[in-house]
Amino acid sequence: MQDSYSSLINRFLDYVSYDTQSSEEAEGCPSTPKQLDFARHLADSLEELGLEDVTMDEQGYIYATLPSNVPADVSTIGFIAHYDTSPDCSGANIRPRIVENYDGGDIVLDAAEGIVTSPKMFPEMLDHVGEDLIVTDGHTLLGADDKAGIAEIVEAMARLMDNPDIPHGRVRIAFNPDEEIGRGAHLFDVERFGAEWAYTMDGSEVGELEYENFNAASATIRIRGLNVHPGYAKDKMLNACIIATQFADAMPKDEVPERTEGYEGFYHLTGIRATVEEATLSYIIRDHDRQRFEERKTFVADLAAVFEERYGKGSVTADIRDQYYNMKQQLEGKEHIIDIARRAIEQAGVECKVRAIRGGTDGAQLSFKGLPCPNIFAGGLNFHGRHEFVPIQSMQKAVQTIINICRIVAE
């Protein structure tokens, strides 16, 4: 195979030039029309590459096939990545640059505004000394979540096509919108995809292999106040802003993302909108343990009921909706799917790090739709913010891991 990975880098830089930020406020799919602009571009590039059965539906789900090059009856497997970027940080006008041979010090993203990515805050940077890091200009996210995964999948397919001596069965690939808002797998056509199992290339640090994730729910607390002229408000006004702060203060103080790790779950307040007349608090609820997850949802519902009793019927309501569940139970009895990925990672010269995801992927929902789908590293770090970066060497290892999986399955 060719030694240069310039095509991988060029693919990634091309992909992140498109703004594909999704939106939790929108109801349609994709949640933002601009995602379709990138989807059309990506679908066209897959056809130009020579992949077969390239299709894109009205919602922007893209499917394509790399035909088998072996005569034996080999399992059809798949690789999946999402192309939307997080609503948490702008994805418009991304200006990436490459820091070659990173020396372990601070990386100045914008000197004029004093925006610096430092190993003092992000010590994981020190694991990549001597490598080449793609960083932002300090004003947007990078989009490695998950356009690094897309670039790696496409690069691996291109390399398999260029190297027919590497055996592989039929490989299906798919790219989808709206993963960042929990809807990426909602309209994914598992039957049309037609794979026995798949892998999402949506993990973080090089070597990661994940097949446990949070059970997840959203909770929207709606508060109805009563606005009265403040000069005559005594014993009449119900200030929804005050009630909202009281509700937030009643939530567990230590069960939040910034104070938990590993298998510890949390409640995460993601937004507040408030006036005297009405207020809304948006939470996400997370736990690896299903029973504890159900208890967390009950706690929020019960707390809303307590507040409603305090302030009157209909004053405080909770809308709690499940988003996805822990995929681990769907992979029981299918350990070969994990073993193949582990071998492929190790054969790429990387230590395999099996970890539980403190989050979720489309693979979690797809596993419950009948498509077992563990998650493999894409290499990026510090997702969803201006300090996001991806080592090129990690992306190279991800490409090799994909190729190894295809070869191992065929062999």
How would you describe the overall organization of this protein?
- The protein is α+β, with helices and mostly antiparallel strands and 411 residues long.
- The protein contains nine helices and 17 strands.
- The protein has helices at 6-16, 34-49, 144-162, 190-193, 240-250, 290-311, 335-347, 362-368, 392-410, and strands spanning 52-56, 62-66, 77-82, 97-99, 107-110, 115-117, 133-135, 171-176, 197-203, 208-212, 215-224, 266-274, 278-287, 316-324, 353-356, 375-377, 389-391.
- The strands form four sheets. The protein has an eight-stranded mixed β-sheet with strand order 1-2-8-3-9-16-10-15, with helices on both faces. A four-stranded antiparallel β-sheet has the order 12-13-11-14, covered by helices on one side. A three-stranded antiparallel β-sheet has the order 4-7-17.
- β12 (266-274) and β13 form a beta hairpin.
- α1 (6-16) packs antiparallel against α3, α3 packs across α9 and α7 (335-347) packs across α9 (392-410).
- The longest helix is centred in the C-terminal third of the chain and has 22 residues, at 290-311.
Question: What structural keywords apply?
Answer:
411 residues; alpha+beta; eight-stranded mixed beta sheet; four-stranded antiparallel beta sheet; 9 helices; 30% helix; globular
